[in-house]
Design a protein that fits this description.
The structure holds 2 protein chains of 2 kinds. Chain A has 2 domains: 215 residues, 3-Layer(aba) Sandwich (D-Maltodextrin-Binding Protein, domain 2); 211 residues, 3-Layer(aba) Sandwich (D-Maltodextrin-Binding Protein, domain 2). Helix content of chain A is 43%, strand content 10%. In chain A, helix 2 links the parallel strand 1 and strand 2. The radius of gyration of chain A is 23 Å and the shape is globular. The N terminus of chain A is likely disordered.
Chain lengths: 472, 311
């Protein structure tokens, strides 16, 4: 039991912390003064660019110190983000904020609606980029189940010398370029193990690569209204393409790749083209690898339909659990994190792109100009890489990546069914089976389509996914 | 006097009873932690898995409804599940045959006296002591599709010509070979130690008597060593089989079930479907699919072991 003196001291500390928090900046969230609200536990991935974590952890702690809140940040590997969330939901305890690097939609039922946070950010910075919105909002339940502070473009990485040798110094432009180039690359570089390194394995990068192929051939898993449309001539065209590409330019190595494998293969100059964010490039820079002078980037490739699209490489989705006792504090932190979008992008060495471009705007920019101002600042960084790219504008194409970047679930919204299909590798396996001849393209498509419909039906029954009337 | 005698007699009659009751109480007390452990960490999760397999429970939700045997019907119709089921049997059978065979050789070698025996023993036990995640990372590099040291070695000695390469983790068959290799490497020390204990427990007089009777090496192996080793061999086998049937570590760390879900075993598929994919009901159905078979197998092997006990 507290003595009267202890009680007065404690009350004084609470009042002081409240005053300090109020003084630190205006807030839309009313924070309670309970003991739980004085702590904030964040589960964060271990960033692919380690310098980001060195920025994030002190940033979170400093924010906490300014607001009288004890902040704890725990990191897990990217593969443990979902299993950890599953465990915390089952236990109904754990962290207050959980960061997903893919889809958080399956956990919608257990997270609070962050509409007010996004509303605040909209008022401060203008609208977020569409792919971030589509990855964090469920139009069926009208719930903003996550808030995205950043996303990561997924360009093509090509080996300039090798592509110059075959007459394409600026790298591939279309998917057909890969098929044409592969035999020539093999001829001129017989020591190279995998002329074209597009992953077809059960890993995160392959999951994105095969979606890019599918979309650029006009196919998709769902339509904009969440009807399953995988069973289509467009999907078949994409699978036929994958089969051709595999036979001329790839080996079984791409069937076994993990998230680091394509980086390692490219950095060891064992392949001439991969689909990846700039983390592999930063590794090459940090270690001054021989590949560095030939390390260049191209935008998403164009398919025969003229569609040119790539999936985001990472889409952050911060959720606040319903079981959290620090929900308002968590909301305030998320706003503060997005306020720091410029620092975040620089700390990640231009890996992170702000989901709210306006948050990177010059101070004092009027609301109507915030998006353009933020975009201009981002372009400035990419056009003159502060982290030593040679030439300095090597990453310039990233500044223009929004038009060719999209969300998982394209052309619809991300949803739990898309998430389950992603996490159980239904699409990568379809491509791998068709490419290697383990199944005919048609059989691979039918098998994947059946499983896809099964998954969609299950989530529709739970009322979290729409569509169904026009399933193919 | 009478009273004293009666009291002594009563006390002496009661004493053994009290002692045996105390023994029983102590026995129960000593057994309680083990029973509590088994109930809380084995029985309860198992019952929960059984329960979940009959529901449409998903990872992001605490609400569910009963779907009967629908999850079992769905998984039984899935080609990925059927492949995983087949792999589980291949994985268990091949790895256990190899573990028992190689364990026997090692145990017999370690029975002999030779220089450096202590070092060999230490090296044999190393895989058992090493954390599996760390060890598998080493194996991941050994079997890496692009940088495999085995391949580079084979290339240097001329086994692999230009353009020839083994894609250990990118080919369904080679993937299973890699998985079985690592699992055998991992279980071999345990099996060796158990078999070594069994071999040393056979009294040397039995072998000496057989020598006097003119028994040859085969007769001694099949009529003395094997029958006397059968109880311990069965325990080693039972442990190995159950452990292998329910293990997902090696598969998950090496191939993650790939390429195209062709190297999954039931445990790794259950993890992929239930934890990563979030379909807890389906994952639970995959996980407990083999429980009836394992129970029958365990009962059978324990009976064999009991019958063959040397008295």
């Amino acid at each position: 039991m507290d003595t009267r003196r202890q009680f007065i001291l404690k009350s004084g500390k609470l009042v002081a912390a409240g005053v300090a928090a109020a003084a630190a900046g205006p807030t839309v969230f009313t924070r309670g003064a309970g003991a739980a609200d004085r702590t904030l536990k964040i589960l964060q991935w271990s960033h692919f660019v380690p310098s980001y974590d060195k920025w994030f952890d002190p940033f979170a702690k400093d924010w906490g110190a300014k607001h009288g809140i004890e902040v704890t940040v725990d990191h897990v590997g990217f593969a443990d983000v979902v299993p950890r969330a599953t465990a915390e939901v089952a236990a109904q305890s754990g962290h207050d904020i959980h960061m997903f690097i893919g889809l958080a939609s399956a956990f919608e039922e257990h997270v609070i609606d962050l509409k007010d946070v996004v509303g605040t950010l909209d008022k401060k910075y203008g609208k977020q980029v569409d792919l971030a919105y589509r990855s964090t909002y469920n139009p069926i339940t009208k719930k903003q189940y996550a808030v995205s502070d950043m996303w990561v473009p997924d360009p093509g990485n090509y080996h300039k010398r090798i592509w110059t040798e075959i007459g394409q110094p600026n790298g591939p432009v279309t998917y057909e370029d890969l098929v044409k180039a592969a035999p020539e690359i093999k001829k001129k570089n017989p020591q190279m193990q995998i002329p074209i390194g597009v992953g077809l394995s059960q890993d995160i990068d392959s999951n994105m690569a095969v979606r890019n192929m599918l979309w650029c051939h006009g196919g998709s898993i769902q339509d904009k209204d969440s009807n399953v449309v995988l069973n289509s001539p467009e999907t078949l065209a994409a699978l036929d393409y994958a089969k051709r590409l595999y036979s001329v330019g790839m080996t079984q190595a791409v069937l076994s790749w993990n998230a680091a494998s394509n980086n390692q293969a490219f950095n060891a100059q064992e392949t001439s083209y991969i689909l990846n964010s700039i983390s592999a490039y930063r590794t090459a820079q940090d270690n001054n690898l021989p590949v560095l002078e030939n390390y260049f980037f191209v935008p998403a490739l164009k398919g025969p339909t003229g569609i040119m699209l790539a999936s985001e490489h990472v889409m952050s989705g911060y959720v606040v659990w319903k079981f959290s006792k620090s929900q308002d504090t968590a909301k305030e932190f998320l706003v503060a994190l997005i306020d720091a979008s410029r620092d975040s992008m620089l700390a990640s060495k231009l890996y992170n792109f702000p989901s709210f471009y306006g948050a990177a705007a010059d101070p004092g920019t009027p609301m109507s100009k915030k998006f353009e101002s933020g975009a201009a600042w981002i372009s400035k960084q990419c056009n003159n890489d502060p982290f030593g790219s040679k030439p300095a504008d090597k990453l310039a194409l990233l500044a223009k990546s929004i038009p060719w970047s999209t969300n998982l679930g394209y052309p619809g919204y991300a949803n739990p069914a898309e998430g389950e299909i992603f996490d159980t590798y239904v699409i990568t396996d379809m491509f791998a089976k068709a490419a290697t001849g383990a199944l005919s393209p048609k059989d691979a498509m039918t098998e994947a389509s059946n499983r896809t419909k099964e998954i969609f039906t299950k989530w529709r029954k739970k009322g979290m996914v729409a569509g169904g009337s026009k399933d193919r | 006097m009478d009273t004293v005698e009666t009291a002594v007699t009563t006390a002496s009659r009661k004493a053994p009873d009290t002692l045996s009751r105390r023994d029983r109480r102590l026995g129960k007390l000593l057994l309680a932690p083990a029973l509590a452990y088994i109930f809380l960490l084995v029985a309860l999760p198992f019952l929960l898995a059984l329960f979940l397999s009959l529901t449409n429970s998903s990872a992001g939700s605490l609400e569910f409804s009963f779907v009967g045997l629908q999850n079992f019907k769905n998984v039984a119709a899935s080609p990925v599940f059927l492949r995983a089921l087949r792999n589980t049997f291949i994985f268990t059978l091949v790895s256990q045959v190899l573990v028992i065979f190689l364990g026997n050789i090692l145990a017999r070698a370690l029975l002999k006296q030779f220089r450096g025996k202590l070092l060999v023993r230490f090296l044999v036990l190393m895989p058992w002591a090493a954390p599996i995640s760390l060890a598998t990372l080493g194996w991941l590099w050994i079997f890496d599709s692009t940088f495999s040291v085995i391949n580079w070695g084979l290339k240097v000695v001329g086994w692999l010509g230009p353009g020839q390469w083994y894609y250990w983790l990118g080919d369904p068959t080679l993937g299973m070979v890699a998985i079985i290799t690592v699992h055998v490497w991992r279980l071999l020390p345990f099996s060796t130690v158990i078999l070594l204990a069994g071999l040393t427990s056979i009294p040397s007089e039995v072998h000496e008597a057989a020598d006097l009777d003119g028994a040859g090496p085969f007769a001694k192996a099949f009529q003395i060593t094997l029958p006397m080793m059968l109880p311990i061999l069965t325990v080693a086998l039972l442990f190995g089989v159950v452990f292998t049937f329910t293990d997902m570590n090696v598969v998950y760390l090496l191939t993650r079930g790939g390429p195209y879900n062709s190297t999954h075993v039931l445990a790794s598929l259950a993890y992929q479907e239930g934890v990563l994919g979030g379909d807890v009901g389906r994952g639970a159905a995959v996980a407990i699919f083999l429980v009836p078979l394992l129970v029958v197998m365990a009962v059978f092997m324990l009976r064999v072991s009991r019958r063959s006990e040397v008295t």
